[in-house]
Amino acid sequence: VQLQASGGGLVQAGGSLRLSCAASGSFVRINAMGWWHQVPGKERELVAAITRSGSVNYPDSVKGRFTISRDNAKNTVCLQMNSLKPEDTDVYYCRVGAVEQTPAGLYEYDYWGQGTLVTVSS
Fold first, then answer.
1. What's the 3-state SS for the chain?
2. For 27-73, what is each residue's pLDDT tens digit?
């Protein structure tokens, strides 16, 4: 499974960016999809997640500002980032759970995209 992320860039505080991630390859279906960010010196943290049925989850830090959406037919997930703040500056990673057919049956595997840099200037 390959993940191609795009949409990062430089924006002024208060501005907006839209991240996209497309999954391709051999899989039965994509279950949960999400975006994470890499906090320097810490583990990656969740920014937004969405289940296959559309249930979403956000940490308090982005609620009301970020919106995650997905297209199951295209195996894509997007993150609309509004009212960006300088503290949102980070590398953002797409993550998906892909269900694959194996000789032993169906298994779900986690995949990460390559990361896309979001820089918010003050």
1. CEEEEECCEEEECCCCEEEEEEEECCCCEEEEEEEEEECCCCCEEEEEEECCCCCEECCCCCCCCEEEEEECCCCEEEEEECCCCHHHCEEEEEEEEEEEEECCEEEEEEEECCCEEEEEEC
2. 999 999 999 998 778 889 999 999 999 999 999 999 999 999 999 99
